[in-house]
Design brief:
Elements lengths: L6 E4 L10 H11 L5 H15 L5 H16 L4 H15 L7 H10 L3 E9 H10 L4 E10 L2 E8 L6 H10 L10 E4 L5 H6 L2 E5 L3 H10 L2 E3 L4 H9 L10
Parallel strand pairs: 1-2, 1-5, 2-3, 5-6, 6-7
Antiparallel strand pairs: 3-4
Helix pairs in contact: 1-4, 2-3, 4-6, 5-10
GO molecular function: hydrolase activity; metal ion binding
Protein name: Haloacid dehalogenase-like hydrolase
Organism: Enhygromyxa salina
Amino acid sequence: MSAHLDIAILDVDGTLKPGALGIELLGALLEAGVCDPKPVDAVLEVLSEHRGGQVEFSTMAARAYSAYARALAGREVSTVEQLAREVWAERRAELFAFVPELISTLRAHGFELMLISGSPIEIVRPVADEFEIAAAHGAVFGREEGRYTGTVALSSGVPGEKAKIFAAATRGRELCVERCFALGDSITDAALFERVGLALAFEPGPELAALASERGWATATRDDVVARTRALLSSLSPSNRPI
């Protein structure tokens, strides 16, 4: 009999806390004079255009990552990483109240936790460290000799990318995807939901809500997400574990 790995994949922005840590980091970089304001304005502009229905999600994401990379170009990686830790120290109080109980519930059921976020890895890693989660994935910007190159190495918030990240992170491991759990709030989580057996859409945006209704994915709010998670996990009795 061989043990199979059960993984719980958690989104961060809009799921573990309101808002977007990547944008909050960008604001801190601008305030500290670490980045050029023009590409920062470009990020905010394309986000506004998407919210106004002028730009569809994939185009918005690609343009936002490109502008973010330009904002970081030439800056020292260590400076950005330090600012990211400071931003998280300020923002950690904004975590939804259910988060500690959710994480303890998943661990009690034997899940290995993984964060996959559309925000930069520099700001995702402090969140992972907060909860002692070893596997943390986020957007990656090109680096060379300790400085950013102005290029995008991984656009983790582009639709479809989270599923690829999950596949790459678990390649070669004894994984039972039917027993894996995913929690997220936006269309970027949809491809990941399609790969796992236990998908839970958290206060989903319109696009994800429509897909959840169509695919039969469970939904939850901040008031019932732990209960909804427990209901999904209740189907995973030890006797159902594959061998």
